[in-house]
Amino acid sequence: MKAKTILELATLSASLYTISKNTQLIEKMRQLAEEGKDKVNAFMKEHQVDEDGNDVEFVDKLLQKATELREDLEQKISQVIAELYEKLNIAHTDQIGQLEEKITLLSNDLALAEARIKHLESKQV
């Protein structure tokens, strides 16, 4: 139950982080618009050529920039989630498997030790 709650908390915090980043992105876009038309005009006048040597259209430039921003956002989100997991010290599935294996080995060792104790007790009586 505790792991489920922590997982839900991590999911919620990742969602909140995504929303806050989207809000920051919108705010940044608003700031760029407020800075003036000069930067937008410079972006529009920027000359880009595709692999065939043709000029890239404005919409394609926007799509390219949006893709770059999305990739940056995904990378930042994954970094924050990794840091969150590290801070919460949530065991990964491979760690859980290793711990289960150790428990099995310890249980076997305990059963063997109990059998030895019973054998020694039976010799003394």
Describe this structure in a few short sentences.
The chain is mostly helical and 125 residues long.
Lay out the secondary structure.
Blueprint: H1 2-35, H2 37-45, H3 58-88, H4 93-124
Helix pairs in contact: 1-2, 1-3
Structure, described:
By secondary structure, this protein is mainly alpha-helical. The protein has two domains: 2-90, no CATH class; 92-125. It contains four helices and no strands. Helix 1 packs across helix 2 and helix 1 packs antiparallel against helix 3.
State the distance separating the first and last CA atoms. 48 Å
Query: How confident overall, as mean pLDDT?
Result: 78
Shape: elongated
Largest sheet: none
Please report the number of helical segments: 4
Label this structure with key terms.
mainly alpha, 125 residues, 0% strand
